[in-house]
């Protein structure tokens, strides 16, 4: 009888709806992404997606690759310092002000970019935008506030050291590159407590310039963003320090940690993000297998898994590793295996299935379905190229990859100079020259 | 030391009150004093302040005014925020003064702190601490 009661309630509602004079519902025409490039170099991109929650972000080309040798780890500290006092607002006011409107300020860093994001309800966007601008353009880095960040820094580093995957990928980049991209995302142990506010100010002065920033908004008016960009994000103009080109050297780093598993990654240099080969490498990644498509499944369709399961009966996991940066890239294989099943990298089949192209398209389209993924996509494209390519354009690009391209990409991987990083119980793990 | 500080605060408050009531000055018999220009009043005030500073006597122990400020929670927080060289200098001066007062001595006259050289190093930090506390209280009230 509870069901009947609920049913009768619903019927009441529909009756009421029929009785009321309902006006024609307001039509929301779907909007396109608008991109403007200001004369100062700042790129502004926005999309009106009619969502009740808006998301604004400032992306800066100031990732860990731009750290200098005497200030390694400054981006890690900057990541933690987003809530500190600025010229316009104290730390207390930033925290409580954003909390009061139910917003959220977050920072994330990749090796190339730093992304400051605020999201909140559409009506309160002015308040949080003010805090965002303060944090990105006018931080003060007061010495006592910066020294209070040291415990948080230590916790961050301890958490990162718990995860073997993070360790292997950091070691991989340190081994593969001579400069820039070899800088770790995390602060090295010897720099904890030694990064002074002066170093942070220098880094911000040199890298947070309008020519290297992009202001991206979802659910905001483009004119408003443009005004904000012109008025407030012009503090430092120019391009700042020019980063140097990443030099691939193909080294090897082994980290013996004990335990029963071995995490290993073997990569070769692939293509830069702006080149045509980058998409081919993406497709190749899905050919070889980029993670299971069924949750808690066995990943039996991946070619890598199939090839390796012929070589050993013990449990393992393997996926293709593909990382693209603005002037270089890494492509290879990441494996997790038992300590005593020493394996060589298997030979790959060169025949390409259209299936992998569909998988890549699906992965991309699904990633831009939610607002974080869409924001990331718009932001990274705006920052690196100054324009936005719609998902249709991206899918066309993926379709344009022919099997020849993928074969060439695979050949480039097989013949290129390799780099390797592994950690775990390395008693049976082959060295790079033995593979 | 504390008594002296209290007296100084009282005297400064009295002087500020007089400045706030210009009519009061008008009531004073103008016949005896020559009419003063602002510059002359400033010079008189400066002389008085300097006399009072020397009368307080902490400069004879090598101390500076901000070394003697009473340490309530705000001042403690401001002291915590001092940069290390400034804090070390403060500690040195306080220790030297404690040592001298134990021995019932004072410094030779050429080492006394001069009124013109007295730097109020703690004031910027103290002002900031008070401003932050007021901001917090304002926020709690809303």
Explain what you see:
The complex is a heterodimer of chains A (435) and B (142). By secondary structure, chain A is α+β, with helices and mostly antiparallel strands. Helices cover 39% and strands 18% of the residues of chain A. Chain A is built from 15 helices and eleven strands. In chain A, β1 and β2 form a beta hairpin. The radius of gyration of chain A is 25 Å and the shape is globular. About 3% of the residues of chain A have low confidence. With 142 residues, chain B is mostly helical. The relative contact order of chain B is 0.12. Classes of the chains: A alpha+beta (435), B mainly alpha (142). The interface between A and B is small, with 7 and 7 residues.
Please tag this protein with its features.
heterodimer; A: 435 residues; six-stranded mixed beta sheet; B: 142 residues; mainly alpha; 6 helices
Q: What is the first-to-last residue Cα distance of chain B? A: 40 Å
Which chains make the largest contact?
Answer: A-B, 7 and 7 residues
Overall 3D shape of chain B: flat
- Please report the total strand number of chain A as a whole number: 11
Count helical runs of chain B: 6
* Total count of strands of chain B: 0
List low-confidence stretches of chain A.
342-353
What's this, in brief?
The complex is a heterodimer of chains A (about 425) and B (about 140). Chain A has about 425 residues and is an alpha+beta fold.
Q: What are the SSEs and their pairings?
A:
The complex is a heterodimer of chains A (435) and B (142).
Chain A: H1 2-19, E1 34-37, E2 43-47, E3 53-60, H2 74-80, H3 91-100, E4 104-109, E5 114-121, H4 125-137, H5 143-147, H6 150-162, H7 164-176, H8 197-207, E6 213-218, H9 222-232, E7 252-256, E8 261-269, H10 277-288, H11 303-309, E9 316-324, E10 329-338, H12 354-367, H13 371-385, H14 391-399, H15 403-415, E11 418-424
Chain B: H1 2-20, H2 22-27, H3 38-56, H4 73-80, H5 84-102, H6 123-141
């Amino acid at each position: 009888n509870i069901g009947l009661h609920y049913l009768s309630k619903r019927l009441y509602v529909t009756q009421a709806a029929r009785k009321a004079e309902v006006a024609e519902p307001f039509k929301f025409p779907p909007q396109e992404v608008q991109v403007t490039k200001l004369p100062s170099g700042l790129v502004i991109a926005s999309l009106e997606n009619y969502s009740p929650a808006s998301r604004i972000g400032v992306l800066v080309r100031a990732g860990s690759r731009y750290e200098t040798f005497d200030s390694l780890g400054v981006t890690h500290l900057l990541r933690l310092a987003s809530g500190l006092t600025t010229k316009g607002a104290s730390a207390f006011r930033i925290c409580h002000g954003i909390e009061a409107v139910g917003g959220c300020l977050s920072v994330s860093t990749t090796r190339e970019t730093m992304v400051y994001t605020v999201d909140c309800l559409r009506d309160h966007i002015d308040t949080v935008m003010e805090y965002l601008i303060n944090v990105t353009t006018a931080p003060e880095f007061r010495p006592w506030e910066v020294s209070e960040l040291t415990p948080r820094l230590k916790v961050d580093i301890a958490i990162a050291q718990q995860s073997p995957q993070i360790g292997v990928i950091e070691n991989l980049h340190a081994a593969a590159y001579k400069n820039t991209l070899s800088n770790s995302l995390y602060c090295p142990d010897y720099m904890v407590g030694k990064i002074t506010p002066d170093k942070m100010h220098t880094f911000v002065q040199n890298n947070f310039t309008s020519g290297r920033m992009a202001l991206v908004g979802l659910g905001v008016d483009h004119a408003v963003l443009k005004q904000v960009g012109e008025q407030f994000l012009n503090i430092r103009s120019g391009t700042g320090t020019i980063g140097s080109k990443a030099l691939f050297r193909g080294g090897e780093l082994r980290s013996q940690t004990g335990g029963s598993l071995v995490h290993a990654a073997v990569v070769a240099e692939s293509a830069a993000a702006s080149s045509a080969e980058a998409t081919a490498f993406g497709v190749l990644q899905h050919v070889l297998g980029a993670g299971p498509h069924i949750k808690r499944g066995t990943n039996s369709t991946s070619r890598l898994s199939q090839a390796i399961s012929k070589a050993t009966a013990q449990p393992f996991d393997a996926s293709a590793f593909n990382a693209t940066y603005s002037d270089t890239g890494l492509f290879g294989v990441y494996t997790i295996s038992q300590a005593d099943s020493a394996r060589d990298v298997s030979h790959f089949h060169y025949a390409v299935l259209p299936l992998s192209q569909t998988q890549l398209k699906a992965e991309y389209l699904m990633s831009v379905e939610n607002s974080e993924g869409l924001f990331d996509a718009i932001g990274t494209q705006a920052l690196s190229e100054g324009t936005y390519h719609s998902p249709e354009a991206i899918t066309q690009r993926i379709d344009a990859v022919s099997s020849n391209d993928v074969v060439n990409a695979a050949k480039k991987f097989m013949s290129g100079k390799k780099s390797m990083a592994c950690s775990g119980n390395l008693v049976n793990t082959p060295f790079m020259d033995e593979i | 030391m504390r008594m002296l500080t209290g007296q100084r605060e009282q005297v400064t408050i009295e002087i500020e009150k007089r400045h706030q009531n210009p009519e009061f000055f008008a009531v004073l018999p103008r016949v005896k004093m020559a009419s003063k220009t602002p510059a002359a009043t400033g010079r008189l005030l400066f002389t008085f302040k300097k006399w009072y500073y020397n009368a307080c006597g902490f400069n004879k122990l090598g101390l500076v005014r901000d070394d003697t400020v009473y340490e309530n929670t705000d001042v403690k927080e401001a002291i915590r925020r001092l940069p290390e060289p400034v804090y070390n200098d403060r500690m040195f001066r306080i220790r030297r003064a404690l040592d001298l007062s134990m021995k019932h001595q004072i410094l030779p006259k050429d080492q006394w702190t001069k009124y013109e050289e007295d730097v109020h190093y703690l004031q910027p930090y103290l002002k900031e601490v008070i401003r932050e506390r007021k901001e917090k209280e304002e926020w709690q009230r809303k």
